[in-house]
Amino acid sequence: MKRLRHALVLVAASALPIAVLSAPATAAPALAAPDIPVANVQAHLTALQNIATANGGNRAHGRAGYKASIDYVKGKLDAAGYQTQLHTFSYNGATGYNLIADWPGGDPNQVIMAGGHLDSVTVGPGINDNGSGSAGLLEVALTVAKQNLQPQKHLRFGWWGAEELGLIGSTRYVNSLTTAQRSLIKAYVNFDMTGSPNPAYFVYSSSGQPTGSSAIENTLKAGFQAKGVATEPTNVGGRSDHAAFARAGIPIGGTFSGAEGIKTSAQAQKWGGTAGQAYDRCYHRSCDTTSNISVTSLDRHTDVIAHTLWSLSGAPARAALDCVRCPI
Ligand code: DPN
Ligand code: CA
Ligand code: ZN
């Protein structure tokens, strides 16, 4: 197929003004990340909702709904060509699962990792918390595969178990790494709640975080700014899965659309939505279903995941002849 494309390009190129043909074969700027279709992300949320409905109404650690969630994500990634590993751990007398997925290729000494927790609380399906981050990460990972992306650095994804019980899965994962393995991870970017119905556009603040975190913060902010969305820094502290990575000295970042916090009137001016109301009124409640999602927030945060991973991993600069209308 590629040869045909090249042939078409050559034919098309010969029809182009001479200037293009004589243009130096310099690489165009690094590949921009694609716009991730939010409908694809919503399809994963529907699958997770159906899993919860079929398994007692939740996707919590130690319950059938969690294992079914992990199997869903793993199945999609295996089919797409990822190298997946299920890491098991015990907690509260139940088996927990982390899913680690490596995209083959890229410099193994420079790992760019992104993750989010896949477990819900026991009282509900956890579609925003954290089906939203999990589904966004999954669709970005599938897009990497669809494009057969060949980034300079190695891409790794993680879906964590038992976050709701105290960041258990991600902590067990980081603790399982040798010091050398940890030093290869140049960034960990966390996505925990990205579709809150009364959304915020928070970016994890790098202050007080390991050196290198500010580059991640700036990349995330730039992703939103490119969409005309203003962001606010937030200090998530020990409330999500980046914490274990930060403790290990690994640069971290992340985005967050808000939980039980109340949207201010200034924020409502900036972001829309309702001042004086929680960002997510169904946080940790049974009403955290597929109807508890702002599609706009889900779309924007997911596109920023893609922007950030393409940027941090050094998606290849496109060779000039690989496309017809490249910026010269
Ligand atoms: N840690 C999230 C949860 O699963 O409850 C909520 C949260 C995420 C709170 C990020 C603060 C910051
Ligand atoms: Ca999108
Ligand atoms: Zn939660």
Task: Write up what this structure looks like.
Helix 5 crosses helix 11. The protein has eleven helices and eight strands. An eight-stranded mixed β-sheet has the order 1-2-4-3-5-8-6-7, sandwiched between helices. The chain is α/β, with parallel strands linked by helices and 328 residues long. It is globular. The chain binds D-phenylalanine, calcium ion (CA) and zinc ion. Residues 129-130, 163-164, 192-193, 236, 239-240, 256, 259 line the site of D-phenylalanine.
CATH superfamily annotation: Zn peptidases
Question: Hetero groups bound?
Answer: D-phenylalanine, calcium ion, zinc ion
Helical amount: 40-55%
Shape: globular
**Over all CA atoms, what is the radius of gyration?**
20 Å
Number of helices: 11
H/E element order: HHHHEEEHEHHEEHEHEHH
Q: What is the CATH architecture assignment?
A: 3-Layer(aba) Sandwich
Structural domain count = 1
Distance between the termini: 25 Å
Quote the CATH topology. Answer: Aminopeptidase
Unreliable segments of 5+ consecutive residues: 1-28
* Class by alpha and beta content: alpha/beta
**Average predicted local confidence, pLDDT:** 91
Question: Could you give a short account of the major beta sheet?
Answer: 8 strands, mixed
Strand adjacency order, main sheet: 1-2-4-3-5-8-6-7
What percent of residues are in strands? 15-25%
CATH level-1 class = Alpha Beta
Number of strands: 8
